[in-house]
Specification:
Blueprint: H1 4-13, H2 17-22, H3 31-40, H4 42-64, E1 83-89, H5 102-105, E2 114-120, E3 123-132, H6 133-139, H7 145-179, E4 184-188, H8 194-211, E5 232-237, H9 238-244, E6 263-267, E7 276-282, E8 286-300, E9 305-318, E10 324-329
Parallel strand pairs: 4-10, 5-6
Antiparallel strand pairs: 1-2, 3-9, 5-7, 7-10, 8-9
Helix pairs in contact: 3-4, 4-7, 6-7
Length: 330
């Protein structure tokens, strides 16, 4: 965590001319005077706190957003509009060569077989927190008080958002395998010992291999597609992962016994989806786009405090064109 002096001087170096004229650069000997100058001049006070919060917010966004274990599936920003049209175009069909019909058919149309799904922005949340002027004054009394104060408050916004995003993405799994009647599943025994672990892991290995071949059996829309192992992710329940990781069952993820090059992500549940030990999905299974991530603030002069808001709008959905299989307990 940066010291008060480092933060104050970084803000001073990037501040307006008016701020730099009224507020001196910070040193060990004048830190109290700098704090009083900032807090006693409203224009400087607002500019200072905005810069302080924004600077630390950038650091918090890059570090705390990663607490969503499923953030790797996110697809970036949705720059325009509120909808996404997901299109799948089927492969062309081969026809036998016939020179006798070439002249008659040369200008005939053969339209591609196209299937489409629409996804819409469906999350518009905000989080709010208050910073009081008295808290800022107290923060000047320790060498790193400013950074700790703002980081703890901003952390409450971004951590809450990241956790909620994680919960919402897990709920997408439940919705998919509950509401999509053609969603695919494979029955496996509950992992309790070496024998059941072997059956479970063999089912995953077989399915992972099957994913790499063009097939219609592993996506709800029945389109002909495949997922290379580098494009596959295994979401596995933490209890199953722990059991497999014990000495008794450690062979299961041994390279000689489970030679599958898929990424593994351990989750604590599947959004309420019962009797599920793991899910194997294509990386494009989740359709999650950020539409808006924005912080705003407002100073209440009567109450002498600042309210800060974090707004997060998203499109949260799943693709029915991508391979996805639930490993359900028999």
């Amino acid at each position: 965590m940066a010291t008060n002096i480092t933060l104050l001087n970084t803000i001073w170096e990037n501040a307006s001319t008016d701020y730099q004229t009224r507020i001196p650069a910070a040193t060990v000997s004048n830190i109290t005077a700098v704090g009083n100058a900032i807090l006693n001049y409203d224009s400087a006070k607002n500019e200072f706190l905005d810069a302080l919060v924004n600077r630390i917010s950038l650091v918090m966004i890059s570090s705390k957003m990663a607490t969503n274990k499923l953030s790797m599936f996110k697809m970036g920003m949705l720059e325009y509009g509120a909808d996404i049209e997901e299109i799948f175009t089927a492969m062309a069909t081969a026809k036998p060569f016939n020179v006798d019909t070439a002249e008659a058919e040369v200008f005939k149309r053969v339209d591609p077989t196209v299937t489409a799904m629409f996804h819409r922005v469906n999350r518009e949340d905000f989080y709010k927190v208050t910073i009081e002027e008295a808290q800022i004054k107290r923060a000047f009394t320790s060498s790193d008080g400013l950074g700790k104060l703002v980081a703890s408050i901003i952390n409450s916004l971004y951590s809450a958002d990241a956790h909620d995003e994680y919960v919402l993405m897990k709920e997408l799994i439940k919705i998919y395998f509950t509401d999509v009647t053609t969603a695919k599943y494979i029955e496996t025994p509950k992992v309790t010992d070496q024998a059941t672990a072997q059956k479970f892991m063999r089912a995953i290995k077989q399915t992972s291999t099957d994913f790499t071949f063009m097939d219609v059996n592993y996506n709800p829309r029945g389109v002909l597609t495949k997922s290379e192992q580098s494009e596959q992710v295994l979401l596995i329940h933490k209890n199953v992962d722990t059991l497999i990781g014990t000495d008794l069952l450690a062979w299961a993820f041994n390279a000689n016994n489970f030679d599958v090059n898929v990424q593994k992500v351990v989750v604590d549940d599947f959004g309420g989806l019962a009797n599920t030990q793991a899910i194997l999905v294509d990386r494009k299974f989740f359709m999650v786009f950020d539409k808006l991530i924005k912080t705003t603030n407002q100073y209440n002069a009567q109450g002498m405090y600042w309210n800060y808001w974090l707004h997060h709008h998203q499109l949260l959905s799943t693709s029915q064109f991508q391979n996805a299989v639930q490993f359900k307990i028999v």
